[in-house]
Write a structure and sequence with these properties.
transcription regulation, Tetracycline Repressor, domain 2, elongated, 2 domains, HTH_TetR, Homeodomain-like_sf, Arc Repressor Mutant, subunit A, two-stranded antiparallel ribbon, mainly alpha, 2 strands, about 220 residues, TetR/AcrR family transcriptional regulator, HTH-type_TetR-like_transc_reg, 9 helices
């Protein structure tokens, strides 16, 4: 009878630590967030933090794992609907913007350039790479569907990395400008320009008549 309540209290304490640590690390970065800060904010003693996670690195890895699971579960399927490239691109950008707005902390933890410092342990760095790789895979698959690039994965990869860099820049900007938003209009223009650079023509845009095809080049 007493074991279940104790487990419930332990789960609540763990969640409270992760909620607080995630907020602080997203706001200040990994290096500037200390165990004492997390303890003071969540109202639990430092010993409780160490008991649950072992170290600050352990907390960070758990924060990233939870953020990754939540964000990736919220992303739509990579098969983007739309009658043509322009429509599919609009749908994709709306999905990216929605994910950014729904999960600003998770995106900042993932993409913020200042989050992982040299003093973060190997497990934390590995989790960041795992997190980024998973999101990159989704973006690559989605943009491949948008532009019809299944035979040209290197182009889809370039477009995906560019998109994540734009999102990452906005995440970093939020440390200085909390109201900064992901500018999907300029991102749309840039993605179309990059696609055109690789010979991908998009029906429905000025001066272009093909859809998702490549021209000799």
């Amino acid at each position: 009878m007493t074991q279940a309540p104790a487990q419930d209290r332990g789960a609540r304490s763990r969640d409270a630590i992760l909620d607080t640590a995630g907020e602080l690390m997203a706001r200040y970065g990994y290096a500037a967030t200390s165990i004492s800060m997390i303890s003071a904010e969540c109202g639990l003693p430092a010993s409780s933090l160490y008991w649950h996670f072992g170290s600050k690195d352990g907390i960070y890895v758990a924060v990233l794992e939870r953020a990754r699971t939540t964000l990736l579960a919220a992303l739509p399927p990579a098969e983007v609907p739309g009658a043509d490239v322009a429509q599919r691109l609009d749908v994709f950008l709306a999905e990216v913007e929605a994910a950014f707005q729904r999960h600003p902390r998770g995106v900042k933890l993932l993409l913020g350039l200042g989050t992982v410092q040299q003093d973060a342990g190997a497990a934390a760095v590995a989790e960041v790479h795992h997190y980024r790789d998973a999101l990159l895979t989704w973006a690559r698959d989605a943009l491949s569907a948008v532009f019809g690039l299944r035979d040209h994965p290197e182009v889809a990869d370039e477009l995906a990395r560019f998109t994540l860099r734009m999102a990452g820049g906005t995440a970093v900007a939020r440390w200085f400008e909390p109201d900064a938003v992901l500018e999907t209009g300029p991102l749309r223009v840039a993605l179309l320009a990059l696609a055109a650079h690789h010979g991908v023509l998009v029906r429905g845009t000025p001066g272009e008549t093909g859809e998702g095809r490549r021209v000799p080049g």
